[in-house]
Amino acid sequence: MTEVWTLFEFAFMQRALLAGVCIAIVAGVLGTFVVQRGLAFLGDGLAHAAFGGIALGAFVAATFGNSTLLEEPLLVAVPFTLAAALGIAWVRDRTSLSSDVAIGVFFAVSVALGVLFISIIPPERNVIDVWHLLFGSILAVGRDDLPVIVAVAGTALLVLLLLWPRLAYATFDSDLARSDGVRVRLLEYALFAIAALIVVVSAQVIGIVLMAAYLVIPAAAARLVARSLFAMTVLAVAIGVVSTVGGLVVSFLADIPSGSTIILSQALLFLLSTSLQRR
To answer: 159: left (phi > 0), else alpha (psi -120 to 50), else beta?
Structure first.
């Protein structure tokens, strides 16, 4: 037990814990609406859109010698991912295509663009680590990364809590909410934009795979046992935080990748929820 407490004396573990808890809290609240609206594929799609945006930033920086873009890839990745998120919402809104189809189209195009941009960057100027972008490492959260994650997660959480009553109403019955004057379409665009911002900032540090898991698994596990949307939200946040702490501890003690242990901890709690599923 003493060894467990001492591991959080390391600065990199403290940064990983704080970043993971911040992401778990905001992803739990956001993931509740994502799962409840049948948009589980959204996190994956936006994370891969971020890959395309970061690759575009690297391509522009390498081509025009812009060192600022190399140091701050989010300057391109954020607007690129926001455009992809709003594009998905627009296609859903203006066509008869389902959410999965719209997300799948943008997912494929973003990955294709990312691969294209990376392939045409001269090797000596290529600073993109594709493996890190996909799988990342929450243990590698730097001193400069942490304030950005905390600020974005805090701002997004505040906006989500302010919109929570109207989002909840529109999620359960969009037609009734619209008849009561709730701007359902605007809320949906706002939800997609918030998701894009959280995903692109977090995925750059902790990886695309782990960010997609944070957005879906805790909320899906919570949905199986919760009896109300509020309970589902609280439980999703709790599952995200517990799996983050547990995953980091197991990762440190067993000397295995932290991203894997966090996702497997979430999966374990998901399996437990299936056995406790309300009838």
So the answer is: alpha
